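Long-time lurker, first post. I've been practising inverse folding by hand and with some scripts of my own, and I keep getting stuck on stretches where the structure tokens seem ambiguous. Below is the full token string for one chain I'm working on. Before anyone asks, I'm not after the true native sequence, just a reasonable design that respects the backbone. If someone could post their per-position residues I'd love to compare against what I wrote down in my notebook.
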């Protein structure tokens, strides 16, 4: 084999070896790089206390959680007790998450809430409000953290939205059909902050 032929073979082999080494170093660096939380759904947590008419927004930073915002709210026009069925005017109680954002809501801005959850579906199935197939569809959606069916007899279209708290002489007026309402300027802040899949806990 002459020198020219030898060089022609060795050069591509050497280049290929350098590419493999570089790729391995890059992969190792990516594995060792800490994960960035960014706007992931576990950065924020919403707690709604119906009896207090308050929404609490918690934020996790550097492994520590702190209370970031507190908002006055209005509830459904049937504020006592949890939502059971379509048209009852009640605000749900339980563990949910944000399913989507609606920047064109008729109540300024809105965040979809994942009602009904599995507990709601179990109660509805027991009470004969939904079928076994509907129950299974709800369970599948919740486990996948997507939007559950909204058109069953359990009701749906529960949102955190703007439109105001209906204050009259300093008193809160519960005016929604089961949603949670904030003042528009506060809704804008919340809407911009929290990502889809942010946990939402609603308690009495």
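-- Answer (accepted) --
I ran through it position by position. Result:
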């Amino acid at each position: 084999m002459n020198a020219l032929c030898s060089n022609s073979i060795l050069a591509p082999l050497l280049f290929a070896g350098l590419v493999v080494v570089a790729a391995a170093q890059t992969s190792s660096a990516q594995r060792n790089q800490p994960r960035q939380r960014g706007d992931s759904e576990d950065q924020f947590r919403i707690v709604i206390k119906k009896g207090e008419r308050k929404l609490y927004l918690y934020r996790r930073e550097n492994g520590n959680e702190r209370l970031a915002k507190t908002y006055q709210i209005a509830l459904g026009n049937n504020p006592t007790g949890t939502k059971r069925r379509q048209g009852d005017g009640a605000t749900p109680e339980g563990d949910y998450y944000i399913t989507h954002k609606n920047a064109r809501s008729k109540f300024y801005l809105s965040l979809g809430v994942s009602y009904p959850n599995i507990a709601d579906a179990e109660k509805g199935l027991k009470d004969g409000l939904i079928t076994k197939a509907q129950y299974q569809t709800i369970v599948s959606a919740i486990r996948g953290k997507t939007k559950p069916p909204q058109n069953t007899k359990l009701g749906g279209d529960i949102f955190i939205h703007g439109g105001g708290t209906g204050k009259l002489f300093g008193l809160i007026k519960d005016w929604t059909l089961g949603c949670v309402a904030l003042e528009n300027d506060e809704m804008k802040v919340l809407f911009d902050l929290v990502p889809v899949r942010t946990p939402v806990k609603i308690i009495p």
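A couple of notes from the structure itself: Strands lie at 44-49, 54-61, 64-72, 94-102, 110-113, 159-161, 180-181, 199-203. Residues 3-32 form the longest helix (30 residues). Happy to go over any region you disagree with.
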